[in-house]
Amino acid sequence: MGAVSNPDAKPDEVICEGREASGVELMEPREVPLGGPRAMPVRRTLPQRHRSLIGAWCFLDHYGPDLVSESGGMEVAPHPHTGLQTVSWLFTGEIEHRDSAGNVAMVRPAEVNLMTAGRGISHSEVSTPGTTVLHGAQLWVALPDADRDTDPGFEHYAPEEISGEGWRAHVFLGSLLGDSSPVKTFTPLLGAELVLDPGTSLRVPVDASYEHGVLVDLGSVGVCGVDAKVADLAYVPTGSEEIELVAGDEGARLLVLGGPPFGESIVMWWNFVGRTHEEVVDYRAAWQAQITGPSGEVVPDSRQVAPGRFGVVPDQPLKPIPAPGLPNARLKERR
């Protein structure tokens, strides 16, 4: 299940660069089938052709609720990342995370797992046998140039619930509604789950230097007067000191994301974030060299992966995911 990777057979090359806009912009998702023959569909709202980043947030997949009996659950074998942080947030289900830095952790509802790829890491994520329904979001954060070759790392944090009249929230990155997260990021970021009771109207104070995104997970909500439904992402540009939210008749559950405009261009292809065509080519070659055995075939067991830039995921017998072929054109870098 590619909510933790991007194992598309023909992944798009994406040029990411911040854009200024006036007014709230509604971004509708596109459905992407990820995985094998029983591919689980995900709804992707970032990146899009006309908007690639919200702050440093550069990738957003929203999935479920999916019955594991029908989808097969999540079974993402070891795969590599560079130049980014992955943020895993679940509404329902449980997933085991393993990475080549030696971290083994569970992803559970209302608990954030943040993995820093830095110069290179590989990881796997597999839903637990007791999970019957999977429902969550997977997000990526681009690392700034000064920090993108940092050591790989991992943080787990379970924020306390905060609440007020008609609303409840968990703040997992940054600060919102009087609460703050201790989780380290390399650029200022906001990430929070917000639940609104039916008909609740809430004015949320925000940092005016941030651009924001409001992803609707359940129900419907007005975002500064613009109506958003399930899986829509409402973009709010910089300059706003508050975001007005009005829940529909069924209430709403939202993810509120934000950060100052990133200010750098990046090339994102497959699971890599780099700055140039040559870097991405090198990342791909390094991963393929690690997972290819003497016969020239991909090793059948991730414990047979060779040491290298992306490390070895411990005690994970799944076959590693090979990188797709590069497109027949130079990957573009836009400054």
From TrEMBL:
Region forming the signal peptide: none
Pfam hit, one: Pirin
Pirin C-terminal domain: residues covered: 193-289
Chain positions covered by the region annotation Disordered: 312-335
InterPro entries, sorted: Pirin (IPR012093), Pirin_C_dom (IPR008778), Pirin_N_dom (IPR003829), RmlC-like_jellyroll (IPR014710), RmlC_Cupin_sf (IPR011051)
Start and end residues of each Pirin N-terminal domain: 42-141
Family: Belongs to the pirin family.
Protein name (Swiss-Prot/TrEMBL): Pirin family protein
Species this protein is from: Nocardioides ginsengisoli
